[in-house]
UniProtKB/TrEMBL annotation:
This is Queuosine 5'-phosphate N-glycosylase/hydrolase. Catalyzes the hydrolysis of queuosine 5'-phosphate, releasing the nucleobase queuine (q). Is required for salvage of queuine from exogenous queuosine (Q) that is imported and then converted to queuosine 5'-phosphate intracellularly. Keywords: Hydrolase. One of its GO terms (biological process) is tRNA modification. It comes from Linum trigynum. The keyword Hydrolase applies. Belongs to the QNG1 protein family.
Amino acid sequence: MAMAAALAGMAMDEVRASAAWVAARSSHVTVDSEAIERVADNMHDKIPKIEWDFEGIHYFDDGPLTVQYLFVLDALNFCFWPDKDLNYDDLASGLKAALENDKSVFDADRLQKYTGPELRKLLNWPRPLPLEDERVRLLHEVGYELERSFGGKASNLVKSCEKSASMLVATITSHFPGFRDHSVYKGHQVFFYKRAQIFAADLFGAFKGQGYGDFHDITSITIFADYIVPAVLRELGVLIYHSKLATMIDSESEIAAGSEEEVELRACSIYAVEKMRDLIRLKSGKQVLTVELDLWLWAYGVQRPSLQHHRTLSIYY
Ligand SMILES: Nc1nc2c(c(CN[C@H]3C=C[C@H](O)[C@@H]3O)cn2[C@@H]2O[C@H](COP(=O)(O)O)[C@@H](O)[C@H]2O)c(=O)[nH]1
């Protein structure tokens, strides 16, 4: 266990350190320190406290089934934009309705058998989902590995992590290859772990820091580098996109997964929000959690559909 705990401690340190490494070499995205200062000055005492389930779209029963639901949800929490009508809330509320209708719908043996059309039916979605084959493959992987190593239950996976969010992220990424969200940038491995970290944050939010959501190291989590938060940071002036990248995003051109542009967008977002958090702490003397900053930025972004975001086909976000 000592070895597991030591490795676990590194998971989010690696995310932070590699994001800073990219930000120091970035050529398509600039992090504007003065803008971060401005946001911290203006906002430090008025960061809105967003309720975790502010949209009222998630399943919650205060027990292990909620954990299973959240793990399945975050296994599929990526790439909605290729279907202009599909959003995260369709996934969250579709899975919720499926579970309310049939409590065994996310049993590990059943997760290993879903087909694309069955998943669509489960979500009550009328046409193929973006990256549907990958979604199905990831569901199978989740079912198989939960059964093999955790008695079929995501709640056992969480219990095995000794109330440590970083141990949870390390355990998930070592057992479930589909959660190993990383890239190689200028020869260096860069870690994001977006869906693994968001699962820890979802537990923390849903269970209000108690029970399955009780983590002594919740402060170690970074933002979840998706396609909404970078767009919000750009709107706030915190990220400046150089002209070629700005044109690609504004003209809705696809940005290749693993390209320098994509890695810089994600890594600079993590780096900038960490700086923002440090400054807010300095100015207000108060500890602000990155999960709270993330939820504020994300909620701001999804309420502004006119914000242009980058478009990358990815299973990670
Ligand atoms: N950084 C960050 N990214 C997040 C979330 C969430 C949802 N978290 C739930 C947890 C508590 C709240 O109740 C939220 O509802 C989804 N995403 C990402 O957004 C994108 C989807 O956008 P659109 O296509 O417009 O639906 C996609 O990349 C998805 O992975 C978050 O919290 N933070």
